[in-house]
Amino acid sequence: MNTTPDGRPIPPAHADERTMLEAWLDFHRATLAVKCSGLKDDQLRLAAAAPSSMTLLGLVQHMAEVERNWFQRVFAGQNVPPVFGESNHDGFALKSGRGLDEAVAAWQAEVSRGRELIADAGLDDSGHLSEQEAGHVGDQGVSLRWIMVHMIEEYARHNGHADLIREQIDGTTGA
């Protein structure tokens, strides 16, 4: 597999649909990790794109929650609690004792669990949204294909946020 100079896996130019979706999702997961690399704890907690309170550490925590929601709750139908507790259901809130290592470990555990849950599933297999979630989508059933495309979109959008935050912190751009 080819990688970018910063170590992210380059998605193949030609592949079957499943391989392509997984590769792009992995690329965007790796992009978020790159955006957080080399920073100190106080920098990861810095809300650097005013007026937003979003931080790089909060984004990592949020994506752990997003991974859990879409692969465990929606696709596999599991009743699992929020990754970082009921009072932090979206993952954005920071806790003074939790740094990047703990947040990344939780995020990577959620990524691994999601991979396990979809390993033998087909792209047309469906998960089930709550009525509230279905109101946004228009249907309570969503295919694994839909979930994977949504996850790519979710990471791409938040990686754009991470770009802005990182640039404000130390001037690093790209990736």
Could you name the key traits of this structure?
Four Helix Bundle (Hemerythrin (Met), subunit A), 6 helices, mainly alpha, two-stranded antiparallel sheet, 2 strands, 175 residues, globular
Short précis:
With 175 residues, the protein is mainly alpha-helical. It contains six helices and two strands; from the N terminus they run H-H-H-H-E-H-E-H.
How many domains is the backbone divided into?
1
Strand order of the largest sheet: 1-2
Shape: globular
| Count of distinct strands | 2
The CATH architecture term is Up-down Bundle
Q: What is the share of helical residues?
A: 55-70%
Low-confidence runs: none
List the secondary-structure elements in sequence, H or E. HHHHEHEH
Quick one: biggest sheet?
2 strands, antiparallel
Reading off the top of the CATH hierarchy, the class is best stated as: Mainly Alpha
Q: Within the CATH hierarchy, at the fold level, what is the topology?
A: Four Helix Bundle (Hemerythrin (Met), subunit A)
| Mean pLDDT reading | 92
- CATH homologous superfamily label: dinb family like domain
What share of the residues does DSSP label as strand, in percent?
under 5%
Would you tell me the structural class of the helices and strands? mainly alpha
Instruction: Note the total helix count.
Output: 6
Task: Tell me the radius of gyration.
Answer: 16 Å
User: Alpha-carbon distance between the termini?
Assistant: 18 Å
